[in-house]
Amino acid sequence: MEHITSTPTMKAPAERFTGDVYLNMIEAPTEPALLAAGLVRFTPGARTNWHSHALGQVLYVTDGVGLVGTRDGGVARVSAGETLKCPAGEEHWHGATDTHLMAHIALVVGDGDGDGTTWLEPVPDEQYDAALATV
User: What is the CB-side half-sphere exposure of residue 60 using CA atoms within 13 A?
Assistant: First the structure.
């Protein structure tokens, strides 16, 4: 058993996020285990870039209200206590609404070469605003 009493909070990299986003890594994907888990906190209006995961992703919302968008224009509003599953290879983004923070635990099974995430371009403000208008 390993008892971890705290993990450092770090600012998420600006090349992968819009706005202020903070990350506490819970578990990194290291052989033989391939689970990556992190607590991610988004300030109002903050969001990820478009991205996908080789083996999918599970998001468990711990606080606030957020959005998850897909390339086909689908948008889900998520709140504390809800879980959202992103299928393998699906390009998506997630973040807070414009008026509420959102925090989630992100769970990803790595592909043997890291966490299997492919990072893409930022979500433009116009696309984010359109997502807000749909929920």
Answer: 8
